[in-house]
Amino acid sequence: MTARDVPSGDPARIATPRPGDPALARLSLNQRTTARWSLPQAVAGCVERGIGAIGLWREPVAEVGTAAAARLVADAGLRVSSLCRGGFFTGPDPAAAHRDNLDALDEAAALGCEVLVLVPGGLPAGDRDLPGARARVAEAVAALAGPARERGVRLGIEPMHPIYTADRGVVATLGQALDLAEQHPANVVGVVVDTFHVWWDPDVAERIARAGERIVSYQISDWITPLPPDALLSRGMVGDGHIDFAALTRAVRDTGYRGDVEVEIFNADVWAADGAAVLATIARRYAEFVAPHLGADR
Amino acid sequence: MTARDVPSGDPARIATPRPGDPALARLSLNQRTTARWSLPQAVAGCVERGIGAIGLWREPVAEVGTAAAARLVADAGLRVSSLCRGGFFTGPDPAAAHRDNLDALDEAAALGCEVLVLVPGGLPAGDRDLPGARARVAEAVAALAGPARERGVRLGIEPMHPIYTADRGVVATLGQALDLAEQHPANVVGVVVDTFHVWWDPDVAERIARAGERIVSYQISDWITPLPPDALLSRGMVGDGHIDFAALTRAVRDTGYRGDVEVEIFNADVWAADGAAVLATIARRYAEFVAPHLGADR
């Protein structure tokens, strides 16, 4: 896999950075990018490729158990850049959602992870009351702020591309996420900046600047055309699409963000490809499109 | 088709309004909703169903010729609520796009149509410069304002759902469309409010109020889940999805808008259904979800 990238087929423009290359310093693999890998496989893949951080998901963590997962990651020397995911606040049983989010906070703390990503949730079936659903998100975040502070975990509200407003995330812009987050201390409630979700926003630069120290996670994937048929699997490999990673990365850098950069790609072709080859492509694309614009290392 | 709707299969909640029913007074059929119909078929369908207006598309108009199309529509007693579409300003040949838009303005004037809908255009292949493309749209609209005024046709900038930012419309919000329109007189450059494109926007109510007299067209279709696989054919029948037509229609009404309401649905199932049955469903859904919130007739 030296001459061509997976899965885009584009010729590689630069050599794949080797483990230890400073260009990989802040790269993190979000587990969903290699969805077929178990947690031990993902950890081993990161170590082999020289990726120093991992964004964990609750389901594969649960497969091995939280304590075992924490040991596995720590023994491998990996940072945990975030835990995905809490949230889903808009459904018919807010109390159950709250309890599940408390569990997620406990898991994040046990994993040594400082950030719980919150996917707000969509509209229940047949529901047309978008302002109502948004109000429920605000209430649920408020209820979770105290428990998060107690556990030393920051909540990251993830604004989602409007393609997901109906079924996944009623918080549709970074500005709206900040309106919610700013009701709480910055060290308790922040926002997630995911290039796929925010790139189209005419006000994205101003909103990233406004986010400032509230950016708890910077996630990257591309917007490709034609859009893949399954909206939930429509993200592209970094560099395959229309997103200006240089501009967005500089905007995030200029807030003072010094955290990891998670590659999170939901895409059937990426999932079908060989995991190690995907990681090689990620490392190369990250070094080409993102790392040069990140500024000082963490 | 009295007991069930096409194409949703939902039971009808109200009787299909008969021709002459005041509930249909401002309903317009956008031609793309019955994409398999020729212009003569669409005109006949409107007359039979008692739909008093039609939103024309340039391609089917060209099939019969502009003058013949104008006679056909006038003889049927139909209003022409809009002509779709000009725009596509962001490509490699702005001069050619300008000439084509002049032709579209001429066609609108000849058809007795006061509104030319502008679809801004997306990013050229391989292009990541979204601000640059947006600047090209602003320049192109400015160049078209004079010719539009001369012909007595209003330009309607259509903000498009962010699902189309990359490949169809770099103007992603109603606020952004208004920023462009407000550089020109309100009787020359306005905006199109299409429920599918704007419903997700946390600021949509304020932006519709800001639009005021600049709303040159109000178009309706629904956001359905799961989203159909072809992004360009992802619109749903009014009432089948998550859009709150009551709230959006009242907001448009409160600006003083007294124009027609175009049903514009790009959807493979709708296109495959019998045209007359689709029009019956449209009439019923419009009477149920939209007409009660429109206020005074035109």
TrEMBL record, chains A, B:
<feature type="region of interest" description="Disordered">
    <location>
        <begin position="1"/>
        <end position="22"/>
    </location>
</feature>
<keyword id="KW-0413">Isomerase</keyword>
<dbReference type="InterPro" id="IPR036237">
    <property type="entry name" value="Xyl_isomerase-like_sf"/>
</dbReference>
<dbReference type="Pfam" id="PF01261">
    <property type="entry name" value="AP_endonuc_2"/>
</dbReference>
<protein>
    <submittedName>
        <fullName>Sugar phosphate isomerase/epimerase</fullName>
    </submittedName>
</protein>
<dbReference type="InterPro" id="IPR050312">
    <property type="entry name" value="IolE/XylAMocC-like"/>
</dbReference>
<dbReference type="InterPro" id="IPR013022">
    <property type="entry name" value="Xyl_isomerase-like_TIM-brl"/>
</dbReference>
<feature type="domain" description="Xylose isomerase-like TIM barrel">
    <location>
        <begin position="48"/>
        <end position="280"/>
    </location>
</feature>
<dbReference type="GO" id="GO:0016853">
    <property type="term" value="F:isomerase activity"/>
</dbReference>
